[in-house]
Amino acid sequence: MIIIKQAAFEDVPAAAQLFHLLWQSSDPLELQIELKEYIASTNKVIFLAFKGTTLVGVAECGLRYDYVEGTSISPTGYLEGIYVDENYRKQGIASNLCSACEKWSRDNNCQEFASDCELDNESSLAFHISLGFKEANRIICFTKTI
Predict the structure, then answer these.
(1) pLDDT digits (tens, 9 = 90+) for 25-66
(2) Does the pLDDT of residue 140 top 70, yes or no?
């Protein structure tokens, strides 16, 4: 069974390891600092997916008050990054993490939720579309009413 929970400071080292697999050019120590700032913020959140005691997925979400491609209401919940360990993919974990981010966004007065991916990231594009996102622009941004 997969458990989704909001990250706490003690989760930062393990979460940073998974986020580093997503953003491989990032410095692992800088990631830990950024994740601590996220956890301390009221406008950002990190969700973790556990199978038993094993951390298998992470998602980072924030509130954006500046213009978000394809949206019309501020703030907009924004999926900043999501990663599931390769051994646990295709089990709905990323979908559950994204749902937690959407709920958090709704709870923070958002009516829209957005994300993006690189132009050549076909698996991310397919993932977003499977969750109901609609392409907003060919820089590949997504929006969805929540």
Answers:
(1) 999 999 999 999 999 999 999 999 999 999 999 999 999 999
(2) no
Give one DSSP letter per residue of 88-129, joined into a string: G-SSSHHHHHHHHHHHHHHHTT-SEEEEE--TT-HHHHHHHH
Q: What is the pTM of this model?
A: 0.88
Q: Assess contact for 62 and 113: CB atoms under 8 A.
A: no
The answer to whether the Cα torsion of 78, 84, 86, 91 is positive or negative is negative
Query: Mind listing the domains of the chain with CATH numbers?
Result: 2-145 (3.40.630.30)
Report yes or no: 84 and 94 within 8 Å, Cβ to Cβ. yes
Bridge partners of residue 6, in order along the sequence: 47
pLDDT of residue 100 exceeding 70, the answer is yes
Alpha-carbon gap, residue 2 to 23, rounded angstroms: 24
Q: Which helix (H) or strand (E) holds 39?
A: helix 28-40
Compute the Cα dihedral for 89, 93, 98, 104 and give only its sign: negative
For residue 129, give both structure tokens: 């579309």
pLDDT of 11: 96
Tally Cβ neighbours within 10 Å of residue 21. 12
Q: Per the structure block, which two tokens stand in for 96?
A: 């559950």
